[in-house]
Amino acid sequence: MPVFLDATAPEFEAAFNTLLNAKREDSPDVDSVVADIIADVRARGDQAVIDLTAKFDRITLTPQTLRITADEIAAAVAQVSPEDRDALELAAARIRAYHTRQLPDDAEWTDETGATLGWRWSAVSAAGLYVPGGLASYPSSVLMNAIPAKVAGVQRLAMVVPTPDGILNPLVLLAAHISGVDEVYRIGGAQAVAALAYGTDTIAPVDKITGPGNAFVAAAKRRVFGKVGIDMIAGPSEILIVADGDNDPDWIALDLLSQAEHDESAQSILITTDEAFGKAVADAVDKRLESLQRAHIAGPSWRDYGAIITVPDLDLAAKLTDRIAPEHLELCVADPHSLSAKITHAGAIFLGQWTPEAIGDYVGGPNHVLPTARSARFSSGLSVLDFMKRTTLAHMTPAALRAIGPAAERLARSESLEAHGLSVTARLRKLND
Amino acid sequence: MPVFLDATAPEFEAAFNTLLNAKREDSPDVDSVVADIIADVRARGDQAVIDLTAKFDRITLTPQTLRITADEIAAAVAQVSPEDRDALELAAARIRAYHTRQLPDDAEWTDETGATLGWRWSAVSAAGLYVPGGLASYPSSVLMNAIPAKVAGVQRLAMVVPTPDGILNPLVLLAAHISGVDEVYRIGGAQAVAALAYGTDTIAPVDKITGPGNAFVAAAKRRVFGKVGIDMIAGPSEILIVADGDNDPDWIALDLLSQAEHDESAQSILITTDEAFGKAVADAVDKRLESLQRAHIAGPSWRDYGAIITVPDLDLAAKLTDRIAPEHLELCVADPHSLSAKITHAGAIFLGQWTPEAIGDYVGGPNHVLPTARSARFSSGLSVLDFMKRTTLAHMTPAALRAIGPAAERLARSESLEAHGLSVTARLRKLND
């Protein structure tokens, strides 16, 4: 049973805080193992990657077979049904269209002193994409990571995907192909992250690594951060649904379950203005759990972390939402736009009852890599900007330096940074000669 | 003596790689000490902060005196000379004008299926700014961190600054006042970072922490990352100057020294097309070091990490620049704009001989918090975006769901995520009723 809370009850605040602070992730401490793996890859390069892949994925590789060839990709892709291919291409086109709008503008202007200022954006030269193997190997995640990189202008996009027992995933390879991935290597784990960050004889190093992974991959990303850029370290998935009584309980139940089925640590919360509706949703969840394929995952998630909160009005729903700062937020109310305007902290908002969160996972267009564990308070989902960086520009004229140089001299002196000041003074002296 | 390299010599590649990979930072391992301090602050709150401040800063505080009052700030600010105040206000106005242009646009559009998509930006609600005490307590850094936060719309900006032996820095407090900092606490070290991240009875927690600090502060920021957002962990400062022979060697020498004087681990590199000019710059550096106040810092930096590289042409200079990916880049050549266009990786570019890097540290307008240690390959200087986050928006109509829902159903099935698919199926069924 999920927890039922009444936001007007005296004990609510304590119970809500317990919900907010529930530690859902039990990450094993793999850091020392990962440190050894990274050191091994840095020392022995390809051979370390090959040895570790033999050990973990039970396949024997050589430097020549680390990379999945174009022919292998073509053969795997040919197995995909036309319907699946069409679905993936529709998703890719919509994701590309959305992310293309994120491309930032350069700027340059001349101010009143005659100084020209501005900035320009450029793409990361080479990026690496980690794709998990086995059950969590999602073609949609390939699209969501690779397309923003390519839209940003990343010239070399190298993907790593473990192939336990040598089995290739045709849809994952098709997604890579559609997205424009340049190189695919059949390796995974911390060794793949190390190879991307430091390079080997066969795999050139990249500048940025993104993509989800298990505890070993997350620990490896943390360790190589600084040497390369990384994306966020994602926690278990979450959904918050704010719904009035005018919804089909079964639809809302399915939306809650679509997060719960990801992971036993996932969290699904319903906030509703209608207590009877909340109970109907709880019943609908139980009914669906009787037959759901992944009930063994969704059931424990809903039982341990699910919650149904009743509120007297939507203003309070908005306030609670900001405290939760959910990864995914569905607003199934009569006027979702007004409610959306009252909410500040959420990774992605799905407006209205015709926008199930699953649309956003695949074909909506926005990215499905989103901030978890309340980090929507300070961070954003993956975007084109994650594969770009900004260089600031400044160009002084003699007149501009005369106008603002003396202030720089004075501040440098106040900070006891003499050479800073002198570098301005020497130039001003020339101007005053 | 700095290293002299000729980019056309056969041994250049090896020497250049040595230069690129020089480990300049010798960070002490303070992680376990910092972990204990954070645990103490989480457990004992204000009292832990007070005890640690007594130990490290030799001042006795109470919960009531943790915060520097408005009266204390006013009294300190009154000690600042009008000239220093004017300089700081000029700097603040120019930084504010530059960063205001960084405010990003929201977007919303309706696509061909009738789906409305978009995103909106919002500010982080509360941010914390770390300001070092003692010698490295720079008022300019307060402006560079606080103004972007306030331009972004951060409602609550809390600053921490240690005051060893109780001594307040009037210019730092004036910079905080001018920037609109809301709260100032006289605490520092890992305990201040922990207080900002987790909160105490007196200090409310923030969502994001920025600002420079020593090894303890850096380790604490790494540890609280995830609970809150942090900015980059900056390494020692760097400058790369590309200059032709048509420059005053003394100006270039001073620009090199203005990085070297920051830190014995700072790095200053000159790339020039004119070998004789390179030698003249080296002589000018030596001459300036005879009298520079901070020669005891700048001298070792220049000796251990300085370099002068001669190149046959500016195209090669651009290529080497991208490999260095410098934090600060000065282009002192006849046509700096053409050269700038050939370069991709740099934190900030200063164009032409009238733009010494020190202008950018204080009054240019762009931020002086910039990516070090080659991280300009994948990251940017501090900006308004560091204090904002983006929420994606999606609103399907029944027609839009009919158009793209089936592709989502199919992809969900291919990923064995049944509830995802069913959440779409249930709605499509209703539409087809």
Automatic annotation (TrEMBL), chains A, B:
Binding positions (substrate): 237, 259, 262, 328, 361, 415, 420
Sequence positions that bind Zn(2+): 259, 262, 361, 420
Describe the task this protein carries out.
Catalyzes the sequential NAD-dependent oxidations of L-histidinol to L-histidinaldehyde and then to L-histidine.
- Write out the entry's keywords from A to Z: Amino-acid biosynthesis, Histidine biosynthesis, Metal-binding, NAD, Oxidoreductase, Zinc
Q: Where does NAD(+) bind?
A: 130, 191, 214
Which family does the entry's similarity section mention? Belongs to the histidinol dehydrogenase family.
Requisite cofactors: Zn(2+)
Supply the EC number(s).
1.1.1.23
What pathway does the annotation place this protein in?
A: Amino-acid biosynthesis; L-histidine biosynthesis; L-histidine from 5-phospho-alpha-D-ribose 1-diphosphate: step 9/9
**What GO biological process terms are annotated to this protein in UniProt?**
L-histidine biosynthetic process
- Name the source organism: Sulfitobacter guttiformis
* Species lineage: Bacteria, Pseudomonadati, Pseudomonadota, Alphaproteobacteria, Rhodobacterales
Superkingdom classification of source = Bacteria
GO CC, any one term: cytosol
Q: Which InterPro entries match?
A: Ald_DH/histidinol_DH, Histidinol_DH_CS, Histidinol_DH_monofunct, Hstdl_DH
Query: Cofactor note, please?
Result: Binds 1 zinc ion per subunit.
What GO terms are given for molecular function? histidinol dehydrogenase activity; NAD binding; zinc ion binding
- Its protein name is Histidinol dehydrogenase
